[in-house]
What does this fold into?
Amino acid sequence: MIYDGRKIEVQRPRLRTKAGEEVPSENYQKFQKNGDRQKAVARHLMRQCSTRNYEGAISESMVGFGIKKNSVSAQWKVATARQLQELTARNVPQDLVALLVDAKHFQEDCIVVAMGITLDGTKHILGLWQGSTENSTLVKDLLTDLVERGLNPQKPLLIVLDGGKALRKGVDEVFGKMAVVQRCRAHKQRNVLDYLPKEMRRKASWRMQAARAL
It folds into this structure.
């Protein structure tokens, strides 16, 4: 059965009919389900516990099975795949007033992230999209998916981008004039500082922040 994120061996009585057929125990079957095990793996790994150290990090109350790093990795994949599917399928909030779109590169892949902000200032991660490069087709598919999940393309929306042409093209194709596009201040400042010698960057950063404060 599954206990505290591991499989443990237990002795249990067997129930049989007069004809000799075994009667399954409903409670025992619930303890055998892997859902709780996957949730436990996700909880530990999200707290910076590696798959290699997982066995020593969980409760030592009893001997368990299925807690070696290969087994834990498999459970981690199942748990995170389910959570990602839920994330990318949930409805977009109706009171969305701003949308932030940015890309992050991991080796050969490009992950585009969309984060929405509602009227009360709450931030919602709306989805992750994977591609080989940060191109307009990927961004257009991202935005089209958000529209299918409830985002109104006919309602004015503040969209914050990093200045990339591919992102802007994808936004224009889906939202047109309804998109009020603003360059992200953090990306703008980072781009400006990259042109300066290292000894000048701190002072330039202070000046840009002071200018924005005015």
